[in-house]
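Fold it.
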Amino acid sequence: MASQVSLRLLPSARCLFDEPIQVKVAGLRSRQVVTLKATATDERGEVFTSSATYRADRNGNIDVDRDPSLSGSYVGVEPMGLLWSMKANTLHKYFFKNKALNPHVVKFSVHEEEGRMLAEVTNERCLMGNGVSRVPVKDGSIRGVLFTPPGDGPFPAVLDLSTFISEKRACLLANKGFVVLALAVYNDKPNNVKEMHLDCFEEAVRFLQQQPKVGSKGVGVISRSKGGDIALSLAAFVPGIDAVVWINGSSANIGVPLYYKKSKILSPLLMDFSKVILLDTGAKIIKYAVNDPRIEENKDTVVPVEQANGQFLFVASEDDLNWDSKAYMDQMVERLRHHGKSNFETLFYPRAGHLLEPPYGPFCPSATHGLLSFQVQWGGEPSIHVAAELHLWNKIQEFLKTHLSCDTTIKPKL
């Protein structure tokens, strides 16, 4: 029986990380019930799995794009459900995939109700398309990774700010025709960082502008979480920032004082840890522990976004349990409007959580917080959250191409 069953991934078993695949099974008995499984191991050796029960049609076929899962890691028609619903056996695990040179490898398999495997196939989900270059950068105060598309360009330039160094989003953007420098907000242990200097990030902007394939006059910045207030500060204080994507960030400078040209420009917005909520799972909700940047006593922490000349894309999730990103977005919009400015777009995702990432990775509801070193709840309803990720990923590309001067699109080849 097993030799007659085929499991196929269309259009190919090898694709880019952010590309969908179609999972099809053929050769089953009419109306046979089977379990489809997906398994992947992250860069820290943690195994993530998902499973879903399907009933074949009268011809013995299953098409995950068409057919509903009856039970398992998700229910209903979810074409990419086997990928986004993968999770570890233990709680509070984030699927760590950072090394751009190595593909995200997922093993798909189909099993009888008794458990016997009938067929399997391996999906290689590449982060870098052919021709994209990856160059580690150690220049002055810059410690990052530069991704450049194939071809002569010219290409628009983007600074990708992550709280800690991450290559995934940056190299995926390079596949789309951007020169991208992945940079971390923290290169040292957070407890060792007592102040930050915007000059270091300005240095990265100038580095990007000097790259031979860059044709855009201004630079775009994409950011999430702590990277958000650094991105806003760059737009407000540093010339040459034409577009900022702010995803579930803060309107105020979080954590430590921010300096520029040897002067303090923003005081830190702090937290009251007595307001942290402990859940039965062991994770904590820290959203209500962050001091309110909208009150008078914290006005010196708020980034003066009205000083910026570039365009903003503000993105906020309703169920962000890290902090109140929707309130912060509303504060910035009100501030810009008060100064007669309309250089912004907003996106609001109901029932999505804090960790909005490029699409088709495993959904992460909770994990260890990199700055606080304890488990936190990120929020989000799985299927709603992953749909928001897909919508946002397309919107990011559209926004950056619209507001950066180069409009070159590259179709990467694998």
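The first strand starts at residue 6 and ends at 10.
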